[in-house]
Amino acid sequence: MKTCGGAGGWLDCTSEHYGLYYEVTETDCDGLDNDCNGATDDFVDAPSCVLTTGICAEAVKRCGGAAGWLECTPQDYGPSYQVAETRCDGEDNDCDGATDDTLVDAPSCALTAGVCAAAVKRCGGAAGWLACTVPDYGPSYQVAETRCEGLDNDCDGATDDILEPPSCALTAGVCSSAVKRCGGAGGWLDCTVSDYGSDYEVEETRCDDLDNDCDGATDVIVAAPRCSLSVGVCASGVKRCQDQAWQECLALDYGPDYEVAETRCDGLDNDCDGIVDDVSGCVSTVAGIAPPGYLDGQLMAARFFQPARLLLLANGDLLVAEHASSLIRRVNLTTGMVSTEAGTPFVPGDADGPPGVGTLYYPQGMFELSNGTVLIADGNAQVRALINGNLSWVAGSPHWGFQDGPADQAMFASVSDVIKVDNLIFIADMHNCAVRTYDGTNVNTAAGTGGVCGYRDGAAATAQFGFVTALAQDPSGNIYIAENEGRIRVLWRSGTAVGTVTTLAGGSESGCVDGAGSEARLNAPLQMAATPEGLVFTDSGNHRIRFVTWGGQVSTEAGTGLGLVDGPALQAKLACPSGLAVSGDIAYLAETCSHRLRKLEHDTLTGIAGGPLITWRDGPRDTAILEQPFGIAADHSTGLVYFTDSNHVVRTLSPEGMVATLAGSAGNSGLVDGRLEDARFAWPRALRQRSDGALILADFGNATIRLIVPTDNSVTTLAGDGSCGSEDGPAGTARFCMPTDIALGSSDEVYVAEEIGRIRKIVNGQVTTLNGSYNSFGCEDDPDGSRDARFGLPVGLALGPDGLLYVADRGCCTIRTVEPATGAVQTVLGIPFQCRPASDGPTPGKTLASPGGIAFVGGTLFFVEIQTGILRTRSNGALATIAGFPWRYGAIDGLGSAARFTFPKMLSPAPGGGLYIADADANRIRRFQP
Q1: Strand intervals (E) in 467-564
Q2: Which of these, 780, 804, 791, lies nearest to 738 by C-alpha position?
């Protein structure tokens, strides 16, 4: 009610008059009409709801009367409100401050498979739901599927259905349309054979006008069928594919080396008939290269190849005459350096000049003159001089023979040693069995009967010698002569005149016995050195160092046999000691078989220079290493070639050109039977093949005949007991000595040539001597079969088409025959002791020089001349030189005289009518086509 204001009358009501709950503008929600306007809880500014954005921005709470302000419900927010926004209308329907966000149930895109399965439309606001675009489907989506990942990238309901998969690795030929397969999550799989289709081949074999192996070339076929000719230069020839058919080969298909009829001598089988160089007169190499045996350097690092003789120079250096490499080497004993003094390695010859220009041929003995000039006994049948490193000629013509006279006309046969005594040069003329002299103008014969070998003391002019190997002198100027047959003789001199010849030590037989004079036995003494008490000498055949007093008493200083063992002298082993030089109490030795220099000092043997050589290597024919192949035999049914090697082994050469070791162990000698690989040989020489395929071998160093049966993997001893001797009888107790060559009869009976001077026969387990005498040499025939013939050095043996045995007698320089039934001996070619090659033509009066290996091909006799290096034949009564050139050496292939051999040894008929040749010092197997 109003309050009375006295004179003012009734006063207007104020807020206090209306009471506690009165509000000018109603704000309380309490079920009262607080502003007294007749309306309960009619508010102008009701409080906002909890959600105040989007369509909820103007929503306010409702008054619940006495209950107060009520929390807003969806209805309070209006009809557009959604608890979870689903509408795409450009509004914030869920009032979270974001328009059209979190559309829980957005509609799916048009594509609903594969990687599109979860894709939904985007809201376009007032424009509504937008149609899906590429990005809406996600990063894996592709309009056209290209990926291989195990997904349906183009959302067409198919996984990895790729219209253009990548090409396979091979894209040519039949592979051009091949594509990789998809491996799902594993990615693109590499193409396999099946992916390329049924026409694909890893190596093309079909002739179908397709590129089946997809290499870009049509019908270029790796395994094309062979041409009808498939050997020699045709080995790689294949048929041509043309018009979807194989065409027969034409000449051009065989390549540029093919010839319908072979005319070239080039080491090839040009006409593809299985025979290399079957051109008349052609010499070719079928296997082998020389061992790498030449190396200068410090003593033990240096390498020698068959050091043969030594010379101790006045300055204290050693000169080494190196046989196989045809060099003179210098050993500086102070610095320990080995160098090349003269010659050209492995180029034998007789050229003058400095090292690398001048050449030697198997140099032997040397002697130093007072002015420093070194005289050399050269295998060229000459005496050479070495002056300040330059080689020059001294005496001897280029031809072998026996002739005194002016130095340039005189002829020698294998000069082996040279010394100067007073004003005369004494020369050991080995194969003339004589001692010659040179006075600066003329060559004369000092002792010996000029090409007639034998054993006879007496006046110098009538005395006979064997093969003279070395010379020495005593303080009185008398000449001491070593003979290969096991003797040391003395040529007594009075002033400059020669007198008589006597024997100091040894006798008619070789052996190894110490003792006095003729009781002693020696075997191939090769170099002597004088001491105040007597001569030290290398007893090469016994592998010992021996000593003989001036009175003839022989003793052994070092060695117990073949081997390579240092240590106390009389326990050590030596390997073919040949060279010797003495300085005070020291003896220097050169060993041809071990390729080393050794020293004997204070009764102890040690090595001082050189080392092992690589003298053996199997493998392809053009890389195989051979060391002095000697014997050879060809199996005509298989094409296999058997040959012996100085490494104490038997080896084979296959038709495919592979060299292999059949029996023995390279470098290991011995006398052992057993399996092929366990067997041991010593310097095996000839071998021949029996009709049953077994091999008969002449085991030179073991003095036995061996039997090799490859099919049984076995080696046995056929005859001989392992020691030199002359006994006939049962094969197991009979004895052989130096068996060199073998011939087989029509019933496989075995004939043996022994260098000791006999021809033997083995049949039905019994050994007999056909003719010749043990260690008694000569050239006498025996036409009546009285068994009293003499041979000089029988080294070749062959059974002729006339049933006779043909013997190459190197010592007599003749070809002789032996009648197998009676033993009768006849000389059929050559003149005894006239050792020089003659011109070709009718054989009467023709001479030979050192005939060696011998064989018959088609009824024609072929033989080599070892020393001259030529191949000769006798046919229709005429002698002809058909390959090589006398005194010119090497390993050169070619036609006729253009070819070169170096000490060829044995022959064997070859398939196709040719000859195999064991070219020993060229270290090769050669072939000749008649």
Answers
A1: 468-473, 479-483, 487-494, 497-506, 515-516, 525-530, 534-539, 544-549, 553-558
A2: 791
Q: Quick one: 230 and 95 in the same domain? A: no
Whether 845 shows a pLDDT value over 90: the answer reads no
Q: How far apart are CA 742 and CA 762, in angstroms?
A: 11
Instruction: Report whether pLDDT(292) > 70.
Output: no
Last residue of a domain, one of 105, 134, 167: 105
Beta-sheet strand order (sheet of 382-387): 366-368, 374-378, 382-387, 390-395
* DSSP secondary structure, 678-715, as one string: T-BBSSEEEEEE-TTS-EEEEEGGGTEEEEEEGGGTEE
pLDDT (tens digit per residue) in 77-95: 888 888 888 888 888 888 9
**The token pair that represents 803 in the structure block:** 């049933």
Question: Quick one: 692 and 822 in the same domain?
Answer: yes
Q: Which residues contact 744 (CB under 8 A, 6 or more apart)?
A: 688, 689, 690, 696, 750, 751, 799
Phi, psi values for residue 65, rounded to 5°: 70, -135
Give me 434's structure tokens. 């004589």
**Domain with 752 in it:** 619-929
Of 19-33, 76-90, 192-206, 649-663, give the lowest mean pLDDT range.
19-33
- Per DSSP, the three-state class of 665 is strand
Q: Are 260 and 900 in contact (CB under 8 A)?
A: no
Dihedral sign for Cα atoms in the order 886, 892, 893, 894 = negative
352-403 residue pLDDT tens:
999 889 999 889 999 999 999 999 999 888 999 999 999 999 999 887 788 9
pTM exceeding the 0.70 threshold for the entire prediction: no
